[in-house]
Amino acid sequence: MERFQVPSREEVSTNNQAIFDNLKKAVGFVPNLYAYYAKNETALGDYLALQNRKTTLKAKEKEVINLVVSQFNGCNYCLSAHTQIGKMNGFTEDQILEIRTGAASFDTKLDALAKFVLSTVQNNGKASEKVKEELFGAGYTEANMIDVVIVIGDKTISNLIHNLANFKIDFPLAEELQTADI
Question: Strand, coil or helix: what is 168?
Answer without folding.
Answer: coil
